[in-house]
Amino acid sequence: MAEAYIVGAVRTPVGSRKGGLAGVHSADLGAHVLKALVERTGIDPAAVEDVIMGCVSQAGMQALDVARTSWLSAGLPESVPGVTIDRQCGSSQQAVHFAAQGVLSGTQDLVIASGVENMAAVPMGSNVPFGPEGVKAGMPYGDGWAERYGMQEISQFRGAELMAEKWNLSREDLEAFALESNIRAGKAIEAGYFDREIAPLNGVERDECARPDTTLEKMAGLKPLREGGRITAAVSSQIAVGASALLIASEEAVRTHNLTPRARIHTLSLAGSDPVYMLTGPIPATEKALKKSGLKMDDIDVVEINEAFAPVVLGWQKDLGADPAKVNPNGGAIALGHPLGATGGILMAKLLHELERTGGRYGLQTMCEGGGQANATIIERL
Fold this sequence. Notes:
- There is one protein chain.
- Helix 10 runs parallel beside helix 11.
- The radius of gyration is 19 Å and the shape is globular.
- With about 375 residues, it is α/β, with parallel strands linked by helices.
- Strands 1, 2, 3, 4, 5, 6, 7, 8, 9 and 10 form a ten-stranded mixed beta sheet that branches.
- The protein has helices at about 25-40, 65-75, 90-105, 130-135, 145-150, 155-165, 170-190, 215-220, 250-255, 280-295, 310-320, 335, 340-360, and strands at about 5-10, 15, 50-55, 80-85, 110-120, 240-250, 265-270, 300-305, 360-370, 375-380.
């Protein structure tokens, strides 16, 4: 049976909206992690068969196939192509899936899965009329959508509120979770847990967004994002800047290029879910991954589930019965930021390095995505 191995995983620090990476061109962000990945793995870059890069807001400096422009901006061989993909927040996790599938199919041996997003320079929704007004105008939804779902508001913010209501999560529950995320992230940064996976850039060596000194009292004073709602900025992922890259290799490539595999791709899974709720997809995606893998939740040593909003993780934990101590052990996007197209690869880099740091065997990554979708990936540390 063919195998797909993770040979290398690198990311930029996650920069804040007004931080040290805010002014870096997206293609240069992507170029930085691609160069770092090539250097750290020692691979001949001309041997790479494709560069698959996730990016959500494909406008401005992120338009015109940023995967290709990032590779060329890195000074790497013109012979290697690149393609940019959009599965919303899961774009670079999907890049990992596509890269692994290319290797598992036997049609490719070396593929880079990557992601980039500079939300400071290219704001979320730059490529589409965003929010309820866009929906009312029929953009990006057409007549068929309107017939099926009506012209109701479709947004992640409404989805987060709907999840909080359905899973009976109070504002206090959400804020307690967010506080713990910030505490864990602060401890991990200070302990240097992320240092091995980060390629410093522009004088920035560590993640910028964490707020370990926040308090429940500070959170309680924030205004909800929606009138009468439970979701505030404190329990939401932060707008951020970042890039990520992983090298996925076949057994043949490992032998030919004298590479050291660090983990194998164990299971790939996808799921669709209610697009109005939007954020519930990680639940069925995880269930499918566990069933396909033959593993139980207790077999998973580390989980990285994207903290788009606190209800996403808390609802998932309730339904899956996951041990909170294993879930985002070093904090998540509420504390560390969520540079949309890059986050999937960032979470995979965190997952791999945490398994290596702790000696765990199996890691699970999952994340909610626009349109009511989710990826789930199980890796096995080698």
